[in-house]
């Protein structure tokens, strides 16, 4: 796998779960990879080793996506340390759920700051450094277009907004050859939502394929969008959920 040799990628929230799978896959495809993490320094160190074992350069950046300055600095550090930026994956996010009459202003501000403002700022900063053929990919959610249970109003709001932002940026950056897309994972087997967890059985009943996605499934789709086959795909949404949203 060498479709991304010579490229540099930045993955926000790349030390665990879907983000770690994406960072690892992009490295496997030949990219040097920077990634941000907010906690779990041991996982960040493990991710650095995993990228370097694939023969690629790695850069772990401690950055809280709730801090706008940290988001922009992560982009600058990537360019400074790794020399360029070709692929941005906006993956970092929070999952705040609750009925609308119980959610607080603080819940709203935290969710919007991490799930929406951070991708906007990272994309804006990245676009200033990117050249022709660059990629911006945001990780959304199937809850952006469908709320199958209670308590999703705030989370769905933040992920639905990514769709509009993606389409707008695709128009803004298309003339420069930069593609912008959003990937919507459904139930995915991570430490936050394990396929063997207490709520897994109920989720499986809603999935036609009767299986959770693996983080590597999502990473494979992201790698395709980041690679040469994705060069003419922009402003698009991709759902990877085993059919849960049909």
TrEMBL record:
<dbReference type="InterPro" id="IPR057326">
    <property type="entry name" value="KR_dom"/>
</dbReference>
<comment type="similarity">
    <text>Belongs to the short-chain dehydrogenases/reductases (SDR) family.</text>
</comment>
<dbReference type="InterPro" id="IPR036291">
    <property type="entry name" value="NAD(P)-bd_dom_sf"/>
</dbReference>
<feature type="domain" description="Ketoreductase">
    <location>
        <begin position="7"/>
        <end position="160"/>
    </location>
</feature>
<dbReference type="GO" id="GO:0016616">
    <property type="term" value="F:oxidoreductase activity, acting on the CH-OH group of donors, NAD or NADP as acceptor"/>
</dbReference>
<dbReference type="InterPro" id="IPR002347">
    <property type="entry name" value="SDR_fam"/>
</dbReference>
<protein>
    <submittedName>
        <fullName>Oxidoreductase</fullName>
    </submittedName>
</protein>
<dbReference type="Pfam" id="PF13561">
    <property type="entry name" value="adh_short_C2"/>
</dbReference>
């Amino acid at each position: 796998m060498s479709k991304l040799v010579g490229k540099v990628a930045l993955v926000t929230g790349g030390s665990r779960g879907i983000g770690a799978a994406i960072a690892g896959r992009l490295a496997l495809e030949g990219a040097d990879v920077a990634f941000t993490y907010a906690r779990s320094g041991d996982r960040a160190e493990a991710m650095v080793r995993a990228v370097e074992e694939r023969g690629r350069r790695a850069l772990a950046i401690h950055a809280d996506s709730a801090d706008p300055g940290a988001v922009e600095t992560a982009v600058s550090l990537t360019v400074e340390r790794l020399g360029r930026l070709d692929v941005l994956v906006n993956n970092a996010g929070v999952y705040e759920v609750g009925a609308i009459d119980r959610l607080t202003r603080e819940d709203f501000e935290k969710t919007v700051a991490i799930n929406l403002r951070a991708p906007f700022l990272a994309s804006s900063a990245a676009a200033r450094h990117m050249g022709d053929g660059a990629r911006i990919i945001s990780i959304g959610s199937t809850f952006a277009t469908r709320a199958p249970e209670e308590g999703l109003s705030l989370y769905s709001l933040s992920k639905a907004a990514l769709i509009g932002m993606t389409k707008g940026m695709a128009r803004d950056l298309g003339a420069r050859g930069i593609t912008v897309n959003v990937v919507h994972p459904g139930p995915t087997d991570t430490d936050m939502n394990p396929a063997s967890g207490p709520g897994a059985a109920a989720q499986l009943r809603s999935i036609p394929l009767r299986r959770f996605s693996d983080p590597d499934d999502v990473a494979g789709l992201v790698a395709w969008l980041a690679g040469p086959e994705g060069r003419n795909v922009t402003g698009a949404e991709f759902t990877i959920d085993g059919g849960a949203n049909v």
